[in-house]
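Researcher: Sequence recovery benchmark, item below. Answer with residues only.
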């Protein structure tokens, strides 16, 4: 082997090594992943989307006692799915009143009505602990043709947490901002996402109390829609129970179902959609049925 041949072989080996070290263009694979399902969970540590083949949800028509907020969120989501203007939404209030159920039901409802001119709508769930990886998720889906709802269930922050600052930047005000094809929906029991004592402590200890409090509560201002969910009265609760019982075909007479519902709510000390479906599951089990 001549010296020239030897040098040529070395050059070819170095070229192969350099090619192997080049970052791979995984756009095609990424698109295939997104086409595999209508809902995903974002794994921030791994930086990847995991398909959710079967979403746990109920039909939109089964959600009772939240008609006003349901209409507002449905209209907002329809506008977004048509490529029009829409707002981030914060669903706050009483536990068990259907906040997360409403988000998932609306996503399914619009997906089923795709023939009405809606763009493909994808639901991505992100855990509160993963919020600091939101910028990576936004960059990954920003250039996709689909529309994305990034959904965070039970969003709240405790004393000492700073990840809410990352969320503020993404929602409104950052250099990159929120991509046009992304909306952020969150549910929380707290209207301002912070515990009251945390806000009061800031007011008591800060040199400029007003500015300190504004820093804490301004996150909720990034949501264009604030939708409040409140505890329901007994007639609404009984309607919820009846709707679930009819849907699952329990076949109980109205008086028996009403008596069981009132007793169940009294033992639980609450009336909500969650309490209603828990009762229906119990009744179905007693009757040997699957819900």
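Model:
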């Amino acid at each position: 082997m001549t010296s020239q041949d030897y040098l040529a072989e070395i050059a070819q080996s170095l070229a192969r090594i350099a090619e192997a070290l080049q970052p791979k263009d995984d756009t095609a694979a990424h698109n295939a992943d997104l086409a595999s399902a209508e809902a995903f969970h974002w794994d921030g540590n791994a930086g990847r989307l995991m398909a959710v083949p079967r979403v746990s949800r109920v039909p939109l028509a089964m959600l009772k006692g939240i008609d006003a907020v349901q209409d507002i969120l449905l209209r907002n989501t329809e506008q977004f799915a048509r490529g029009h203007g829409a707002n981030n939404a914060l669903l706050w209030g009483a536990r068990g009143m259907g906040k997360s159920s409403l988000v998932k039901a609306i996503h399914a409802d619009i997906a089923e009505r795709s023939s009405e001119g809606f763009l493909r709508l994808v639901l991505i769930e992100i855990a509160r602990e993963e919020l600091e990886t939101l910028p990576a998720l936004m960059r990954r889906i920003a250039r996709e043709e689909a529309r994305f709802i990034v959904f965070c269930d039970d969003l709240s922050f405790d004393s000492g947490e700073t990840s809410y600052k990352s969320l503020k930047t993404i929602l409104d005000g950052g250099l990159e901002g929120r991509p046009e094809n992304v909306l952020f929906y969150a549910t929380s029991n707290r209207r301002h996402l912070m515990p009251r004592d945390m806000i009061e402590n800031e007011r008591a200890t800060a040199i400029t109390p007003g500015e300190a409090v504004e820093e804490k509560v301004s996150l909720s201002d990034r949501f264009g829609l604030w939708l409040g969910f409140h505890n329901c009265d007994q007639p609404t609760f009984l309607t919820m129970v009846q709707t679930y019982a009819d849907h699952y075909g329990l076949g109980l007479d109205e008086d028996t179902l009403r008596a069981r519902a009132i007793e169940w709510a009294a033992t639980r000390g609450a009336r909500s959609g969650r309490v209603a479906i828990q009762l229906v599951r119990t009744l179905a089990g007693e009757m040997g049925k699957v819900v």
